[in-house]
Predict the 3D structure of the following.
Amino acid sequence: MTTEKQLEKGISDIVGALTDPIIVSLGGWGDTLPEWIKTSITMERMIMNMRALKGEEPTGTDAEACAYLHTVSLEHPIDRDWTDIYLYIACKVYEKWRTKDSGATMPEDIRVEPLRDDQLADLNRLKAWIYHREGTGGLNPRPPFLSLITHYKLLLSILNRNVIIGLVKNI
């Protein structure tokens, strides 16, 4: 690759880190992302660009995986493995990017450490999928490997001023 092409790619990567859309689930929950995670996504993308310059294979970042799983979990229930992955990555990202003087920490009872090998492989596949979706204008169908609990519907009913909530299995 010529020096001119390398410079052009480097500029393109920086612009992409700053302006590429955040990949979220298609369910319409993208506007629920807190500002701190949006900022951390930009910072982690810049860090990933630096790693790629040193020869590391580029991939989606921890913050991007956290943001995607946040929106998916609001759209549909996720299975146990993806719940563990989401809690693991949410704790990791929050602890890294939270305001230290806030004193807020992730509660111990929801920490998941470490992930099993198969869960770590799923997380890495998700991050690779996110990376390959960046720059596509936000066209982001659900990755085929993400397990959702879609054969149930949430039932919400009000009876005699009492709220009844339950899951109903689709037939």
Q: What stands out?
A: The first strand starts at residue 152 and ends at 159.
